[in-house]
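anyone seen this seq b4? input:
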Amino acid sequence: MPLLALSILTKYVTVLLVPLFLIAAYRRDGRRCLRPLLIGGAVSLIIAAVVVAPFWAGPRTFAGLALHGDVTGARFTSSPGTLLASFLDGDRSLPYVVSTAAAMHVRLIMLLLFSGAYAAIALRFWKGIDDLLTASFYALFFYLVLLSWWFWPWYVDWLVVLGGALAARRTAMLAVIFASAALFSYAVLGWQDLLFDFESFVPLTAAMVLVAFGPPIAFWLGGLPRPIWMAEAFGAAPAMLGTAEAPFAQPPALTYNRRQGQGASGPSSGSAAGASSGSSSEAQGGARVGGQRAGDAGATAVPGDGGAD
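predicted toks r here
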């Protein structure tokens, strides 16, 4: 908990991970986790007090949080929420600030969507379908897509850190795609004077959202279980594409058995060779058995003959 507290003090968005850490503690230790959590929470409060004390300015200390919750629409840029607000407001010329009414509607819609996504993430983690890192990754992913109305490419660094810890999984590839696509949004900003008419706000915002959010959302949708009708229509995914948890997995390597030969005649000749070797082995074994029996018969016959003499 103290380490998570330091993370929250660095960037308050990671407060979204607190319920997931509580679930992890309960799933591991049950009710016995209560005492360590209380101790960890007390230590976290002490750390927060020590860190914030030099910067304390009364209520103004939390002015940044209040600015993020501003309902005037001034904190909207380069995000799916901004695009939705521009449609609700109607197309306008630049400079454009989202109206208060549109901002409130967008916040409500996106908050409901994020609440549903977060509940599904927590439920999957509670049932043991996902681990803590995966659940934390998707919690931050959906925050960036749905709740980060003021978006800039470097925000994806949070996912890059968690994706690095989930290497060889689909989540790692999702982090790489999101980070790369977000950087390409700078190309849209750099060429906006030539590509877009400043009399219209929607095309510029749509281009930003399509470039930065389109590829990661498409990749995430591609990893969802397909409906039965789609699976029957297109068939199963090839083995070389890997699975949802191991997208880089390769199909088993083909091996060559030199005892079987090559070509169509290879297996036949190999089978014939095996049959002939088997027959010769059986013949040799039979000869040994026959010789042993003959030797035994001779050994018993000699004393009998001697007795008759």
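The CA atoms of residues 75 and 171 lie 29 Å apart. The chain has a mean pLDDT of 74. kinda curious what u guys think
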